[in-house]
């Protein structure tokens, strides 16, 4: 029955989409060329309006049909633990378009006309202005004050691949897809079964292929053109119809910055020049970040075990520095934002002692307060929390307990929580923290500023990051402290110091497991999130009558192997630490994880070089092959392998029980790090990749070839024949291959 209802709703929505563009009444203008300056021209013919730059065609509107329409609508929103079920009820459409004027005005091309429909009429204007670097800015203005939906469409090549839109965890190439952009919890399962079905049934929290913490309304295409839509509303980017792109924005009017460039790297440079770039990480950030909790004695014991095995621990991430509570979801924190001196006696001395050993200490904070404790009481008294429609504090139900959400639109709230950060985090010795959440603002909340919560919702995680960055800057600790965020929107890359990919399942699932974390990082990198990483081993751990989702030893080690090549190498125990395999679960894991830590820090100078490049030109550290080899048709859909910079290529094992991996090598000559075997580019290969020997290749003529080879080769696994049968390092049996066992090293 639920499936039938969903199908009927979809069909109804589909029909409504078709009616959003009805007909156009064109103006009678002979073919004409308009020079906008800056190397951009507009060419008008009876059936088309095109914008041409010195680097080629940027934008085309089909004048035989409407390319702009508007409507009045109302969102029907279901909200549960930052999972949103949103339907749009349209009251009327202005879906007929007329063109009444196309002319140059003050150097800009101005289009004016009317939009009309049953019971609907409004004037509109679109102003196209040429900027530097083949940047065409266009502003859409709709006159009628009641209209709050805008629709635009323009031409697309049928073979045009499309990338970006923030962290997309299921798809890299979005051609043929229809993502919606709204910051929310990514969901549990996102299509992987049976967990999605169970999460949806019990909590309405299964998610889908487009749910994400960090949607960003920016994309670029294989035609080397990029588009950034400047708005904050819920939006839909429809790439399903091959010949065109359709975009719906639930806001009245919008601004677009579009670019035409020689290659996608240049588009990213121009886009991040406008929206911001990540700073340099401090030197300590390139070692192992050990995510441990449980109190002072346990933490010190785990550090000692890891360091004795040779793991280069440079950071201790203690999320339970504020204390820990048990809930139905597992181990949760006390959201009170000051040290728990019971779990960590003499906190300040504890931090200083670790600092003296070369280990920085990081904590945790989010923009909510549990409904207990002195900070919550103060926030209530001073009206620092968002309100509901009755004017009362909006209390949300989190995974285990209620909490109030800080109103970041209130300047006094911002000053207050920055003071808390400066005194209780920075002032207590922390060198960084997870700045969690940001996607929880209900759309029916009432804000201090009077702004619509529907429009502020996507901005909230950006403002949360901005606030954290300002607290660091005001404390004069810029460049010394790192905070990492998971939620965001446009301009997050201006304020965050680091991203992480959020709460993936502790699974091999393609939509919400190890593979999805990589796709999210790669797509985010194509949207300006150049510094990103994931929790080693995943986070979400769920017992179930049908299937338990607990972290296995194999999954932990494969995920650690993958994250060796991330800018930050950080573990997370997950929400049920006792059910998950951990970096300290047994001696063999401790030794193997230490070897991965050595491998990661061996890449330190290369990572620092790439970090500098990211801060200067906006290129991501982890890159899908299409970014560097855009003219190779074999790279356009690759999302399970990646480049680190330009000189290191990784084919990770992302499936359970596999000890070999298939992948594509782009043009050039590539050398397998561990065997020294050279491969000619432009070919598909399959290579052995037993645990501990990831399939890593170096570009033989790359600038970093010799240095990377010298750094990694000493960590080559040494064969031995004494590996126990139960070891996950043993290759799986294959009658066609000789059994080879590998030592831990």
The number of helical elements comes to 16
The figure for the number of domains is 2
Q: Name the overall outline.
A: globular
Class of the largest domain in CATH? Alpha Beta
CATH topology of the largest domain, by name, is TIM Barrel
State the distance separating the first and last CA atoms.
Answer: 57 Å
Mean pLDDT, nearest integer?
Answer: 92
Strand percentage lies at: 25-35%
Radius of gyration: 26 Å
Helical content band: 10-25%
| Count of individual beta strands | 40
Name the strands of the widest sheet in spatial order.
1-8-9-10-11-19-16-15-13
Task: Quickly give the CATH architecture of the largest domain.
Answer: Alpha-Beta Barrel
Taking the sheet with the most strands, its summary is: 9 strands, mixed
Low-confidence stretches: 1-18, 721-745
Structural class: alpha+beta
CATH superfamily of the largest domain: Glycosidases
EC number: 3.2.1.20
Keywords: Glycosidase, Hydrolase
Domain Glycoside hydrolase family 31 N-terminal: 77-238
Organism: Leptospira langatensis
